[in-house]
Structures are given as C-alpha cells and as structure tokens.
Specification:
- It is a single chain.
- By secondary structure, the chain is an alpha+beta fold.
- It has 2 domains: 129 residues, Jelly Rolls; 279 residues, Vaccinia Virus protein VP39 (Rossmann fold, 3-Layer(aba) Sandwich).
- It has 9 helices and 22 strands.
Length: 432
C-alpha cells in the first residue's frame, strides 16, 4: 500500500506506484499485511529515480525491509544508495524466515534526499525447495487458508462476542473509526448477521445502523422499518429476527440495468435474495419482510408516516449529486411516524473540506456538506445527533486501500484523488 501523504499516485503499466516528494521522509510503501505460515520467503522491491533526478550526492535515499508484529520487529532490511539508481530501475530481493505464523508487511522508507518512483505491493514467493515443506505442526489454524478475519483476530484477540446482548453506547453521528471495531457490540452484531469480523467499513456501516436502532429500542416486535437501496445486505433479515416488519426497497430493474447495478451483488429485486440462512427463521422472515421498487429521488406518497425507522447504507451518494443526496435524507424523514428514527451512511472525503468529487454516478461528501445536511434537518424540527469528527490514530486508519480495493484493513480508501471513509448520520423525529 502507498502512503500518499509522501507523494502522488502514478500508474506504470498495470502497477500502482508512488512518486515521492523531495525533502519528505517516511514509509512510502507499507503493508499489505500478509498472513504467512512458518517458512522461508522472498520479496522483491522495484525502485527507480524520478526523471530528471540529479545524482550529485551518493547517499542512502531509501531502505527496504520486511517487518512483523505490526512493525515492531524487522526481519531483514537493505539500504539503497542513489548511485544504484543511476542506470535505471533497481530490483531488490530480500529473503526472510518466518519462524512461526504471523502477519508480515513489506516496506520502503525514503529519506527525502531524492525523488523516487516505487511500485506498490512487492511480489512475495515461497523460498522452499520441494523437499523442504514445513511440518504441519508449525502451521497455525488461525492463518491456515488465510481467513479474511485473521487480521481482525490478531489485532483484537478473537472474534467471538463476550456478552449475549449489546450494551448501550450512546452513539451519535460519526466517522468510521478503528475504535468501533474493538467493541464487543461490533462482534455481537457481526455474529448476529453471520459475518466473521473483519476490518471493513461496509461491516462498520451495518454494525452502526443496527446498534443505533437497538439503543433507541426500535428492534422489537411490531416496529416497522424501511430500507432504501437495500441491495443484498443482511439488515432486513437481522431486523426481522427481532420481530420487526420490514419493507426492503431498491431501484426498479430497468433503472438498475442502465446504471450497471443489476449485474452486481449489490442489487436486489425480490425478497428471496434477502433471506440469510442462520440469521432469521425462514417462516418468520417471509412473514415479516416485503420487497418493493422505489426511486430514492421520488419517494411515493403512500409511504408517508408508515414506519418507525428507516435507513440506507452507502447509497445516497449515487443519486445524482451532493444536493440530491441531501434532499433524499430530508424526504426520507417524511416516511417516519412521530418519534421515528433514521440512520444513513455515505462516502466521506477526509482530504479536503473545499475540493471534492461530484458526479451523477457517485459524489463524496465533505464535512461542510454533512453540516449543511444537519442544519437543514434541524431547520425542519428534527434532531441530528452530534457528529464525532475525531480522526482515529489506530493502525487500520494508517492504511489507505487502493483500487481494486482488495486489501485489509479497508477503513480508508483512495477514490477520485481523495482519502475517503464512511460516515453515519443519525436523525430523530420528534414525538409530536
């Protein structure tokens, strides 16, 4: 993964690279936090001097290394002198031993003495000879097959909840933060949805929505919930398991086909695709959950004041513009009864409160956009729970996932030249 605070993203063939800035020092490449069984391995780094770089001073300009235990232990390292880059790109191979299973990362630190071009995700290979395969007793069951939640378990000590019911946390509106993933409540809701805990912001969105409704006593028999752009998310089945009546909605098939969503796993056009085995009893689910096509930009009048709660998970940014999304959140409040509650998550631009990306397909909200949304809602008499704008300093918040977004952790992503995450807004309707 690339530390884009030290440079700019460039493409070389089919590889992402970072072009570092002169006079800026730090780890330009780190991760990708590979779960490796015991054994011997090789990793190869590719480093080049930027076009026009001068070679007057022959000094160390970069250091490549292999680290484990989240950077606390360095297995092997090698410095790179500027003179080594004079004749073109340099390939550095580092061999290392993993005495026991663990989490390894592969880093390149730069001193700032030169402007460098460094490839992301160095290729890793096993250095075993055919007759030297490690004995089975050295392969931990935790890392065998590299389960997707192994990193979560390594960081937080396990994935099973400690309590049988979530506590009251007093959540407000918030950015996605690593701190939330360490909560027992996160583990509880993941188990309730049949998901193995992992450091992924989509799972955070579902946890956050469920926890907010739980704290407001919305998850109970007789309560009615409305889901917008439901896709195939597990929340309808989860809420039905508590006895809630759910109307799950998504865009109509023709519109979904035109926008490209119909061929994805994030679109639903029938209630059957929302049933999750093990999350809710089948008979109970089909008695409580209904499906209907609804345009989020034109919510039907017959849905007005019919629900106790409503939600959307990373959908309002796809409605045509920033203002389209804000208007949707306002209009969705009309579907709620007095005392009703809404929780919406969307894409959030961490990089700037001035510049952002806005298009018909996807828009990224800034703090000022969310504050405008809150002010407009409060102007209509709704209560918006106070935003927690704190930027976490956890390990997962130092990792920025790049396209095609297959890395873990996945709390921060690089999208349209901005560092982005998820944000949740929590809104209450008065009892009058």
């Amino acid at each position: 993964m690339l530390n884009l605070k030290l440079g700019t993203l460039v493409t070389k063939g089919d590889r992402n690279c970072i072009m570092t800035q002169p006079a800026v020092a730090g780890h330009a490449v780190y991760g990708p936090y590979q779960m490796l069984p015991a054994g011997r391995y090789s990793v190869e780094f590719h480093i080049a001097a930027a076009e026009g770089q001068r070679f007057d001073n022959d000094e160390v300009c970069a250091v490549a290394d292999v680290a484990s235990d989240f950077g606390r232990f360095v297995s092997v390292s090698q410095g790179v002198r500027l003179s080594q880059l004079r004749d073109g790109a340099l390939s550095i191979r580092l061999d290392f031993n993993a005495a026991r299973p663990g989490t390894f990362e592969f880093r390149v630190a730069v001193t700032g003495s030169a402007q460098l071009l460094i490839e992301d995700v160095p290729p890793i290979s096993s250095a075993f000879a055919p007759h030297e395969q490690p004995p089975d007793q050295y392969i931990s069951k935790v890392f065998e097959g590299r389960p997707e939640n192994a990193l979560y378990e390594a960081m937080f000590g396990g994935s099973e909840p400690l309590r049988n019911a979530p506590a009251h946390l007093g959540l407000g509106s918030s950015l996605c933060r690593q701190l939330h993933f360490s909560l027992d409540e996160f583990r509880y809701w993941m188990r309730a949805m049949g998901i193995r805990p992992r450091l992924h912001r989509k799972d955070w969105e579902w946890f956050y929505i469920a926890q907010c409704f739980h704290e407001s006593e919305m998850l109970a028999p007789g309560k009615k919930g409305l889901a917008f752009a439901v896709g195939r998310e597990p929340l309808p089945a989860l809420f039905a398991s508590f006895g809630c009546e759910i109307l799950a909605t998504d865009q109509d098939p023709e519109r979904a086909a035109l926008s490209g969503w119909a061929n994805s796993n994030q679109y639903s056009q029938q209630v059957d695709t929302l049933f999750k085995e093990g999350v809710c009893d089948r008979e109970k689910f089909f008695s409580l959950v209904r499906y209907r096509s609804v345009d989020m930009n034109s919510i039907p009048d017959d849905l007005r004041q019919g629900f106790d709660f409503c939600w959307s998970s990373c959908s309002l940014e796809h409605l045509g513009s920033l203002q389209h999304g804000i208007r949707f959140v306002e209009n969705a409040m009309d579907t709620l009864r007095p005392g009703g509650m809404a929780v919406h998550t969307t894409e959030f631009n961490l990089s700037s409160n001035d510049e952002t990306f806005e298009s018909e397909a996807t828009s990224y909200y800034r703090r000022r956009d969310m504050e405008e949304m809150a002010a407009r809602l409060e102007g209509r008499g709704y209560r918006v729970r106070r935003f927690d704008w704190a930027l976490g300093q956890g390990f997962a918040e130092t990792v920025i996932d790049l396209p095609p977004y297959k890395q873990s952790p996945h709390l921060r992503v690089w999208a349209q030249e901005f560092d982005c995450t998820s944000v949740a807004i929590v809104i209450q309707k008065s009892n009058r």
